Amino acid sequence: MGEEAKWYVIHTYSGYEKLVAENIKKIVEKNNNSDIIEARVPVEKVKELRNGKYREVERKLFPGYVIVRMIFNDESWFTIKSVKGVTGFVGDPHNPNCLTQSEVDKLGIEEKNIEIDYKVGDTVSIMSGAFEGSNGEVAEIDMENAKVKVVVSVFGRNTSIEVDLDKVVLKK
What we know:
Helix content: 10-25%
Structural class: alpha+beta
Number of helices: 3
CATH superfamily of the largest domain: NusG, N-terminal domain
CATH class of the largest domain: Alpha Beta
Number of strands: 11
Largest sheet: 5 strands, antiparallel
CATH architecture of the largest domain: 2-Layer Sandwich
Order of helices and strands: EHEEEEHEHEEEEE
């Protein structure tokens, strides 16, 4: 009891990814106490040239796969396996491995709720990346893309760099 839901990868028939995800969502809505939380089809937005015009389209990152967040037990396993279009779990069919937090972060399937304690004009310290340990002034905050622009001094010149919101902390 109290087990945390984790992300698992299920294999589907090619072209059935969205249908499988929608059917899982219907099951979740139907069973309020279900151990299955959500299903996602990882996609990326790309620009495509067609008839001389560019347009933005969604392309599946992993055709034939759906990512499911659930508490793994016999009932949830059976429910997922019985969805039309699902061929099975990736890994051991009866005890699949869940995704690690770093894999989930790379896929961008979990929305992060980031709270920041700094504002434009504040001095912050950069916690990771090429400028780790550097201090700079916040020039702009982009909550939608979870980025912050920080002006740091590089070889005596002010340079604006873009960093993830959670990679900087208020300098005290």
